[in-house]
Amino acid sequence: MRGLAAYVMLGRRQAIIIVLLSGFFPLLYFISAAVIALVTLRKGQAEGLILLLWSLLPAGMMWAMGDSSPVFLMLGSYALATVLRKTESWQLAMLLAIGIGLATQLSLVFQPEYLAQVESVVSDGLQVQLNQGGQTEYTQEQIVDLLLSFYGAYHAFMVIICLMIGRWWQAALYNPGGFRQEFHGLRFDPRVMIFLLGLILAGLLDIPPLDGWLPLFSVAPMFAGLAIAHYAVARKGLGSVWLVLCYLTLFMMAPAIIMLGLTDSVLDLRKRLDGMSNKDS
Questions:
Q1: Can you tell me the distance from the alpha carbon of 75 to that of 71, in angstroms, rounded to the nearest whole number?
Q2: How many whole angstroms separate alpha carbon 206 and alpha carbon 201?
Q3: How far is CA 30 from CA 68, 115, 175, 199, in A?
Q4: Rounded CA separation 9/275 (Å)
Q5: Which among 220, 217, 208 is positioned nearest to 90, based on CA atoms?
Q6: Per-residue pLDDT tens over the stretch 31-40
Q7: In 37, 150, 193, 238, which residue has its Cα 20 to 30 A from 94's Cα atom?
Q8: Single pTM value for the model
Q9: What is the domain partition of the chain in residue ranges?
Q10: C-alpha span between 65 and 45 (Å, rounded)
Q11: Please, which residues have CB within 8 angstroms of residue 223's CB and are 6 or more apart in sequence?
Q12: CA angle 21, 22, 26 (to 5 degrees)
């Protein structure tokens, strides 16, 4: 991956080639978004905008075929990289990602074909289950609503991941260890996290429309939780197996990682970990 980043930074032509080649493949278009982030972070908005416009060619074709995600991903990665380059604030970049996720969530109103496709897949799945003698305690409408509630969160998550890949590439080429230091230091202003916690609680109380956006509001605290977990493992000199356990916890008990991020913003767990390490030494 570092070699790919080095090739992209050789010049505009090389970057355009990678953006176009990866943009036409459903499983690889995230690379295009990460390249846009890298170039924007390193060379500025104007150069990033040129790549963005080129990336919209394959992304537009994907949308015409029914997949709007590449367009949102390209636009979002460019926007987040621009904010991070100007402000050096991961908090602002992630809050913008939530805004982008909300915009994509609301865009479902204008995507009836996608909604129909999701309903069809759920209907077919339920029919297969019923034919096999199975039962479900949820209706088709409830399952569809649950799946669609992750639409905005997925896009917010992916634009952050693409930004992180771009930032990691930039650090690997020009500032080794820089991304690691930034990620370990990721911590949100307590007021921001308290506001997000209020939105999460409102969603848990089934207050519309916030109940349908609950996964979206959890994205930023989740990344904050992962950041403090990475910092703790590095600070204590623990092995990578602890990071594996952390990500298993994320997949199996995501609320635990989300609560960790919320707690860190209020209590500043890094200071406590540093104090414990100083006492041990």
A1: 6
A2: 9
A3: 13, 23, 23, 29
A4: 42
A5: 220
A6: 999 999 999 9
A7: 238
A8: 0.93
A9: 1-108+153-175, 185-281
A10: 29
A11: 94, 160, 186, 261
A12: 125
